[in-house]
Design a protein that fits this description.
The chain is an alpha/beta fold. The chain has a single domain, classed as Alpha-Beta Barrel (TIM Barrel), CATH 3.20.20.240. Helix content is 50%, strand content 8%. It has a 9-stranded parallel sheet.
Length: 498
């Protein structure tokens, strides 16, 4: 009879650490960012005062798409779904009074990840931080943008080059930094099943790893800094099993397929966020219950980091009160529920073990099919992954509309004439302030130095040189996110979905 698998041992089904939360709780983050850097800084300071243990930065759509706040397509979107960051000055204002060497920061940014990480590094450097001790995560996951989200700029293959350049540079300069957060979250938000979320996330991971190995990086030189980002959805037991299955399958892939030998290369470390797509505008207070169950599933599944959504996010950006309540949800689970007293509390349950095996097998079958197509890039270019998600999303919605799947307050247990919740309102003047400040920056900086740095960056993009030192130099010269992105567009082109 085989000895039972222990937490902290290969293939890490029961958790990547022996003691799990007995040794250290997960990092409690609250995803936040809106308006200008000053407005977001106030929210970060508030959340820190309420007990968060890590920052999580949301950027607005223009920043995500490599456009400055005064771009014609940015009108009406500046600061709306995240903070507007155009320059080093903006990034300094965003973290004013916050020591970056004393906090971990997660930045949800992909197409412009190399630029925003460079800005963050420059702020830390100006604070006097030891960059080799700087800790945090940059999402930097472009493949899921083509699959599920849409904030891409360049075609997939040059976009992958930027990512592997970041891997190589950060491996030398920022050894404690997580260089990618491979995201299943947005895949699930787009409508995938739990099995598809695991499968497509790990298929993307395989593509990134293969690209890095082709670029000459030894597997154990970068794999320990890979991290993941998963959704915590409504089906409680399925979600717990999903996290366990993902860990086990990843460990086997890293060991058997890539020959990784460093134990840290085999450990799937993940951040979880409760399911935004499950939040309802109807009876928004009920979202507190949904989020609590989803957060508990993430903890029972062994998350290293967690964000809990606020009750009002189906209506607006969260108010301070709602963000505080969402954080308190994590704190109650951590300090009052008792679930942190043992690793993998549901391990050994017949149903959980069966679900874990089923999800692992289903995900592996998808990965085998993607391999047979020529890998993830080919599967994306052939629209296979996108079609699978779209079909699942359609089936899910049909179940709701037919009443086969109950959503409380939506298709059953409705409440008429409910008292509306007080929601957040963004000051429309903030966009004008951001645009005026950007134009002032362009007027006052050394534009000859900016031009020189951008020209060198373009030359590097046309060669095989690592792009990060050139992006860093351009950022330090006060080139903007849009200007740097435009230089790379001039070389790489722009992706157009079919």
């Amino acid at each position: 009879m085989n000895a039972p698998e222990l937490p902290g041992s290969f293939p890490y089904t029961r958790g990547i650490y022996r003691d799990m939360y007995r040794g250290r709780l997960w990092t409690m983050r609250q995803y936040a960012g809106f308006g200008t850097a000053e407005e977001s800084n106030k929210r970060y300071r508030y959340l820190l005062s309420q007990g968060i243990t890590g920052l999580s930065v949301a950027f607005d759509l223009p920043t995500q798409m490599g456009m400055d706040s005064d771009h014609v397509l940015a009108a009406g979107e500046v600061g709306r779904v995240g903070v507007a960051i155009c320059s080093l000055a903006d990034m300094e204002r965003l973290f004013e009074g916050i020591r970056l060497d004393e906090i971990t920061t997660s930045m949800t940014i992909n197409s412009t990840a190399a630029i925003l990480l460079s800005l963050y590094v420059l702020v830390a450097k100006r604070q006097g931080a030891n960059l080799r001790k700087l800790s945090g995560t940059i999402q930097n996951d472009i493949l899921k943008e083509y699959i599920a989200r849409g904030t891409y700029i360049y075609p997939p293959r040059p976009a992958m080059r930027v990512i592997t350049d970041l891997f190589a540079w950060a491996g030398r300069e920022l050894p404690e930094w997580n260089t990618i957060s491979i995201s299943g979250y947005h895949i699930r938000e787009a409508g995938s099943t739990a099995v598809q979320e695991v499968a497509f996330t790990l298929a993307n991971a395989i593509a990134y790893i293969e690209a890095a190995v082709r670029a000459g990086l030894p597997i154990d030189s970068f794999a320990p800094r890979l991290s993941f980002f998963f959704n915590a959805h409504n089906n409680f037991l399925e979600e717990v099993a999903k996290f366990r299955a993902a860990r086990r399958l990843y460990a086997k892939i890293m060991s058997d397929r890539f020959g990784a030998r460093n134990p840290r290369s085999l450990m799937l470390r993940f951040h979880a966020q409760t399911a935004g797509s499950s939040l309802t505008a109807q009876q928004p207070d009920v979202n507190v219950v949904r989020v609590s169950l989803q957060a508990l599933a993430a903890v029972l599944g062994g998350a290293q980091s967690l964000h809990t959504n606020s009750r009002d996010e189906a209506l607006s950006l969260p108010t301070e009160e709602s963000a505080r309540l969402a954080l308190r949800t994590q704190q109650i689970i951590a300090h009052e529920s008792g679930v942190v007293n043992t690793a993998d509390p549901l391990g050994g349950s017949h149903y959980i073990e069966q679900l874990t095996a089923e999800i692992e097998a289903g995900a592996k079958d998808y990965i085998d099919r993607i391999d047979a197509m020529g890998g993830t890039l080919a599967a994306i270019e052939n629209n296979f992954i996108q079609s699978e998600i779209q079909n699942s999303a359609y089936d899910y919605q049909q179940e709701i509309e037919k009443g086969e799947r109950i959503i409380v307050g939506v298709n059953k247990f409705r409440q008429e004439n409910a008292v509306p919740l007080r929601t957040f309102r963004l000051d429309p003047e903030l966009e004008k302030q951001q645009v005026d400040r950007l134009r002032e920056l362009r007027a006052c900086r050394d534009n000859a130095e900016v031009l020189r740095c951008l020209t060198l960056l373009e030359a590097a993009a046309r060669s095989a040189d690592n792009l990060l030192p050139h992006i860093l130099a351009a950022c330090e010269a006060n080139a903007t996110v849009g200007e740097i992105s435009d230089r790379l567009r001039s070389v790489f082109g722009e992706y157009r979905d079919r």
